[in-house]
Amino acid sequence: VKPVVSVIFAGPQGSGKSTLAGRILYERGAVDEGDFSRMKRHARALGRGGTGAFAFITDTTLESRERGLTVEASVHDLETERRRFYFIDAPGHAGYVKHAASGAAAADAAVAAFDAAETARSGVSAEGREHLVLLGAMGVGRVVFAMTKMDACGYSSEVYDGAREAVERALSELGLREWQGAAYVPVSGAEGDGVTCAPAKAGWGGGRGLVGELEALEAPERDEGGRFRMTIMRTFNMPGEGIVVSGQVVSGRVRVGDAVCIAPYPGQAVARAEVGSIEWRRRAKDGASAGEFAGVLLTNLEAGLAARKIKKGFVAGGADSPPAEAERFRARIRVVDHPSRIHEGYTPYLHCHQAAVPCALSGFEDVREAFTGKPLANEGYLRPGVEAAVWAAPAAPLAIESASEFPRLGRFVLRDGRTVAVGECVEVVPRFAR
User: 105, 354 in Cβ contact below 8 A?
Assistant: First the structure.
């Protein structure tokens, strides 16, 4: 069985992420030729000829295609000689960072794309830096850096070196030391150089190309024997059959016939159902394991269970060990970017797995200098560059778990027009008794 790896294509708007992901999918045979011909005609009709059709492979919505930017994160399948990949194409525009956060929460690895000429000239932009912070906060431990649009600078090694130095400088400033030694690949999404094979026009860069670097990544260890958890991304009503919840299994395994439950659910601890069938991309499956995406048909629904009440960000779990809605939770946060100070009662949006809800912060304790761990006086507020233990009270239903038990369900970022802090859940006080 080939290892499964989820890869997010991240980076600032205009860095060519969608074109890059689309070209890989097309050149590796994951796109039907008839469908691609229709995409080319659509791209020409919208004035996005040339490489526009490659971006349309992952930018599937009309809004994304007309505006020329990715609006929502989308998931696409690719199987190579060594791996089964899920490609997650994330928005780069600052207005859609919340979707990039949910994409990063589902990723094992990342292709961090940066326009080589722009980055060499101006450094890593605020958008690019925020994407790097998101990837680090959500626990994406494996990154390949793609220096894109090399055709636009004549495949200049000087431009590539300048871009790489700018990215490495940003990583150092952001404290992302875990990616030191990561691979850097010069690529052209427009011409395909260095994408699915070793660079030719940028042959001075050496290496095995972007896909080669992705196939060389180690697949993460999965907790397939753990308690079942699946983050819900979409919900569909199937009249006469049941409710389909679609998302990613992050722990354990789900099989046809299993008793499962959904949390949070309005007005009660959980909502219960049975798994009637499982499929992905119209292919029926007996089960789905940690790391896999799946659509699960829920049958034998508990009285009152309705599709319209199951929102993106809810969590499915095993009936014998259900997830819980949080009344409040204890967390450790690090403030990364705030214009002044964070005081008690501050209520930014929390982005955790697929959920996004306002959370009020209080009870600041154990304030320390970020990265060094040096204890600091508790002045009743938090400023950039410090970390602390805090209590967070969600203003809307939220299922969150301690990061030590379920890392993907416990890591989060706090945003208020920008990413102001990152953190991990330590313990949960449930709203309902388990």
Answer: yes
Residue 186: cis peptide before it, omega within 30 degrees of 0: no
Which helix H or strand E contains 56, and what residues bound it? helix 52-58
Q: Which of 135, 27, 31, 143 is nearest to 90 (CA)?
A: 135
Give 58's contacts (C-beta < 8 A, 6+ positions apart): 9, 18, 21, 22, 25, 70, 74, 76, 87, 89
User: Nearest CA to 90 among 119, 115, 70?
Assistant: 70
Token pair in block for residue 88: 């997650």
User: What is the C-alpha separation between 74 and 91, in angstroms, rounded?
Assistant: 9
Q: Are residues 269 and 322 in contact, defined by beta-carbon separation less than 8 angstroms? A: yes
3-state secondary structure of 270: coil
Calculate mean pLDDT across residues 93-97.
Answer: 74
The yes-or-no verdict on residue 93 having pLDDT over 80 is no
Nearest-10 Cα torsion for 379, 382, 386, 392:
120
Q: pLDDT by residue (tens digit) across 110-168?
A: 999 999 999 999 999 999 999 999 999 999 989 999 999 999 999 999 999 999 999 99
Residue 143 · residue 163 · CB < 8 Å: no
Q: What is the DSSP letter of 300?
A: S
Express as a percent the part of the chain with pLDDT over 90: 80
- Kindly give the pairing relationship between strand 229-238 and strand 283-285: unpaired
What 3-state DSSP class applies to 303? coil
**Strands 355-369 and 386-394: what pairing?**
antiparallel
Distance CA 135, CA 168 (A): 15
Smallest CA-to-CA distance from 265 within 241, 292, 298 is with 298
Instruction: Tell me how far apart the alpha carbons of residues 209 and 77 are, in angstroms, rounded to a whole number.
Output: 20
Asked if 349 contacts 98 with a C-beta cutoff of 8 angstroms, the reply is yes
* Gap between the Cα atoms of 119 and 164, Å rounded: 8
